[in-house]
Amino acid sequence: MSRSTRNPARVFAALGDETRLALVIRLSAGEPLSISRLTEGSRLTRQSVTKHLRVLENAGMVRCAHSGRESLFELNPRPIAQVREYLDRVSKQWDKALSRLKSFVENEV
């Protein structure tokens, strides 16, 4: 069981920042990218991008591989899928609770 399954709040917290969401979108193309490539076209510094990548890495959403002197980052989609499964379970629980409430209210009338 991964960290994100045990604690989905880590993934939610990591995704709760616009910069990190933008990085996830850039990495979702499937190609590992360097910090230099991830900063292209943005006003972010390499240090800022590195900080955000570390948050995503700590949530298990990003992996870092070294290629020579360069660090390449790639998206690990599994924590997002696990959080989606978690949200599906919560949604089903709410659907059942609302169904019970509806039944109760209709039977009281």
Can you describe what's shown?
By secondary structure, this protein is α+β, with helices and mostly antiparallel strands. It has 6 helices and 3 strands; from the N terminus they run H-H-H-E-H-H-E-E-H. Helix 2 (about 10-15) runs antiparallel to helix 5 and helix 3 (about 20-25) packs across helix 5 (about 45-60). The protein is elongated.
List keywords for this structure.
alpha+beta; Arc Repressor Mutant, subunit A; 3-stranded antiparallel sheet; 13% strand; 3 strands; 6 helices; elongated; 109 residues
Structure summarized in a few sentences:
This protein has 109 residues and is an alpha+beta fold.
Layout of strands and helices, then pairs:
Elements: H1 3-6, H2 8-15, H3 18-27, E1 33-34, H4 35-39, H5 46-58, E2 62-67, E3 70-75, H6 78-108
Antiparallel strand pairs: 1-3, 2-3
Helix pairs in contact: 2-5, 3-5
